[in-house]
Amino acid sequence: MFDNTNTDWTDVYLYSWGMGYFGDFVKMDAAGNDLYTAVAPVDVEAGTECFLFTNTTDWSGKQTPNIVTEADKNTYKPIVNAAGNVTSVEQSLTASSTAPKVVATPNSKSFSGSLDVNLYAFNTNDATYTVNGEEDFLSGDVTLNLTETTTIEIFVNDVKVKTYVYTRTDVADAVVNVTAPEGYTGDIYVYTFGGDRVGAGFNLMTANGDGTYTYIINGSAHVIFTTTNDWATAVKFIISDASGVLPNQEPLV
């Protein structure tokens, strides 16, 4: 749950790279009293950092810091400064609703090749779904392997509550090149996420012997370059120009 009291955002999105999501923006549902809700289909342990909240889907607006989960907390209330920017997030516990909840992960997106989509239903035995119009019962968790453009609709008690569209695109491989900082000769990994990637991960780039490194991606992705495949030890590559260090960078760009 997201408490919108202090932020007063018009729209609220959960952005998550865990708990069943794969770098998805999920529009949260208004629940009254300035609360917004979204389904976390997979449990996470306390101390896990895997989501944040934002008011846009293109990073041009406001957002919270990354959230680290705490035991028995499910409600997040941002604290904002005079400029309206979030400085911290308070966590508390709100009784969970017993109303039916359904969700598909990943969220609607484009993909190349094939794509596994997971469907979940909670607090109901009367959920169904259609795949391009063909209906089936949603009992427990369902995994669908998609190889073509597909529309999935989910119903509870014969009322449509969610629609997801997955668009198959046959895109060419993307060749990613990076030039290492002067004097660096070690490994470089490219961390891929978003785009039509499902799941995120570190990929060792090929060293070309001239200070450049290359990796081929099937489809599209956002990328971060790091020196190791572990966030705890990766050396920061900070981008700068003649005026100094450029603002608004990811921690390890």
Q: What does this protein structure show overall?
A:
- The chain has three domains: 2-92, no CATH class; 101-168, Immunoglobulin-like (Sandwich), CATH 2.60.40.10; 173-245, no CATH class.
- Helices cover 0% and strands 47% of the residues.
- The chain has strands at residues 2-3, 13-16, 24-27, 29-32, 35-37, 49-54, 67-68, 75-80, 86-92, 101-105, 109-111, 115-122, 127-131, 134-137, 142-146, 150-156, 159-168, 173-179, 189-193, 201-204, 206-207, 212-218, 222-226, 240-241, 244-245.
- The chain has a five-stranded mixed beta sheet with strand order 11-17-16-13-14, with no helix packed on it. It has a four-stranded antiparallel beta sheet with strand order 3-2-6-7, with no helix packed on it.
- The two termini are 31 Å apart.
- The model has no long low-confidence stretch (mean pLDDT 89).
Helical run tally: 0
The neighbouring-strand order within the major sheet is 11-17-16-13-14
State the helicity in percent bands: under 10%
State mean pLDDT (0 to 100 scale): 89
Shape: globular
What fraction of the residues are assigned to beta strands by DSSP?
over 45%
Largest sheet: 5 strands, mixed
SSE order, one letter for each helix or strand:
EEEEEEEEEEEEEEEEEEEEEEEEE
The whole-angstrom Rg is: 20 Å
Number of strands: 25
Question: Which residue ranges are poorly predicted, with pLDDT under 50 across at least 5 consecutive positions?
Answer: none
